[in-house]
Amino acid sequence: MILEIRLSNFFSIKDEVVLDMQAASIQTKKAKELEENTFVCGDERLLKTVAIYGANASGKSSLIKAIRACVGMIFSSHNYNENTIFAFTPFKFGGIGKPSTFFIRFLLEGIEYEYSFELNKVEILKEALYYYPNGRRSLVFSRDETKGPDKKNIYEFRSVIRRPMDVAANTSKKTLFVSRASQMDRDTAKDVFRYFNERFILNYFGYNSFSVERLLNENKEQFLNVLRIADSDIVKIDSRHENKVFSTAVIDPADNQILSVEDIQKPQLVITTYHRNNPDVPFNFFAEESDGTQRLFNMMLTILDIVKNNKILLIDEIETQLHIKLVEYIIGLFNKSESAQLIYTTHNTYLLNTNKLRKDQIYFVNKRDDGSSDLYSLFDYKDFRDGLDAEKAYLQGRFDAIPYIDEQTDNFLK
């Protein structure tokens, strides 16, 4: 589970911003009523959901993009070649030529880890992994490419990873050591890699295509309940695999002529839906249901799996193409989960409700005068008492993070 994420010099983020998933010490009656929005893991009390508000172009998406870019590097950097340019842009008004930094604290099997790296657009500069096996901070490895070129000067290890210099010898400046070490079957690195790969879900589309049938069978009643909330008239869903015939052609590359055609059979998932007004008439889900229903299907299967298995989900603009009541339901699923976590951005101020979210669950992104993004929490406003109308205060500009619009439309129409 995530304790804290720190970022600097990514997209519109210039100076370091901190997204803290640790629950603040709030002793008010309202905070106690919302205690289910938190969970205890080890010695830490953590938040299950965090909402991020801000004006258009304030940097909300930059925060999500930066986290995705960094986690994506953990997934993929062992495949990067010498021509790779990393998929992010440093802050353009003063950040070009300076390093970008990523730091995350997280809990894995009850043990706290700290992982960080520093990079520019073309190479890794620094990287480190620490953990707390006995409650005390201990080094797994650290790396500083500025001390090169000798790998023995660049790296420092303890006894956690076996034959670490073999991994270092195969780790280029394009590659994160933790990614290469996982690929080379080193246990601690594999644990960290699996944490990001299996538990840190960067979006809810495309994640479950390989296991749709299993997830549907495991969550069918909950899924039908979601469809009812979304005002769908689907009352029953069945799934099965059928062998479908596909034709493959062998083509002569010399004259582009077909030499032979072979029919092969492949299993294909078939989903059948039934509707309230005539539950005996079957519909082919992929061919006859609307794009919106199919989108909701894929999204909610992912969310139900994440909530059920206590994973982490990162979503930009959670309300996109969803009714507000369905968004509320999704957030409620996470807040009622055992320890799943949801980080989301939104413009919908209806959700800015301190009767449903603690003050430390609400963050704002505001654009500074130099064009960079600042991140801060409602909890930072000590004079904002429980019971006050957070939506009204936000729209009045009390927390900044809103667009300031010239309402004199006559100026526009001239």
TrEMBL record:
Domain ATPase AAA-type core residues, every copy: 51-353
Family annotation (InterPro entries): ATPase_AAA_core (IPR003959), P-loop_NTPase (IPR027417)
Entry-linked PANTHER family: ATPASE AAA-TYPE CORE DOMAIN-CONTAINING PROTEIN (PTHR40396:SF1), ATPASE-LIKE PROTEIN (PTHR40396)
Top-level taxon: Bacteria
Protein name: ATPase AAA-type core domain-containing protein
Any one GO molecular function term: ATP hydrolysis activity
SUPFAM superfamilies linked to this entry: P-loop containing nucleoside triphosphate hydrolases
One Pfam match: AAA_21
Phylogenetic classification of the source organism: Bacteria, Pseudomonadati, Bacteroidota, Bacteroidia, Bacteroidales
Native source organism of the sequence: Bacteroides cellulosilyticus CL02T12C19
